Amino acid sequence: MAQRLIATADLSDAAGGGVALDHRIRPVWRGASLQGRAFTVRTPAGQHPSVKHALELAAPGDVIVIDGEGGTERALWGDKMSAAAQERGIAGVVIFGACRDVGQIEELRFPVFAVTSVPTAPLGDVDGETGVTIVCGGRTIAPGDLVVGDADGVITIPQAVVEAVLARVV
């Protein structure tokens, strides 16, 4: 995988398009960017147990990618999770759902991309799954796929074609 952050637009061009997640998934603070291997999470909207579990299991350099079913009534991520992830060397988080504590996340300079932010806390009633192939923001994402996010949004490149796509980046 490339060491330098490559712009999502350049990667999309090199991949021939069709690699962008839903356009509503945006950086929650100006200047946020991320790049790393996908560590995937599937959770029912607003449910937090599997998200916490992912934070424990993800490796340094991973991007935690959460399919929260696009739910925006309850946040799946906040400042405490961001601080813990940053401490563990996690490269960032992508959420098809909501986050909260945006001001504090920006102060930490931890890269979080989400559909929106809401102040409502998550629930802890129903577990999901980690480390499985998910559909997040309209894209199928497998563990280990390349995830890159910047001001233009988030793209994913399947692990099997990463090297070929990187070789085409102009």
List the helices and strands and how they pair.
Elements: H1 8-15, E1 26-27, E2 34-42, H2 49-57, E3 62-67, H3 79-88, E4 92-99, H4 102-108, E5 112-117, E6 129-130, E7 134-136, E8 139-141, E9 146-150, E10 153-157, H5 162-168
Describe the structure.
Helix content is 24%, strand content 29%. With 170 residues, the chain is an alpha/beta fold. It has one domain (8-163): Ribonuclease E inhibitor RraA/RraA-like (Glucose Oxidase, domain 1). The strands form two sheets. Strands 1, 2, 3, 4, 5, 6, 9 and 10 form an eight-stranded mixed beta sheet that branches. Helix 2 (49-57) links the parallel strand 2 (34-42) and strand 3 (62-67).
Q: Nutshell version of this structure?
A:
This protein is of the alpha/beta class and 170 residues long. The chain has a single domain (8-163), classed as Glucose Oxidase, domain 1. It has helices spanning 8-15, 49-57, 79-88, 102-108, 162-168, and strands at residues 26-27, 34-42, 62-67, 92-99, 112-117, 129-130, 134-136, 139-141, 146-150, 153-157.
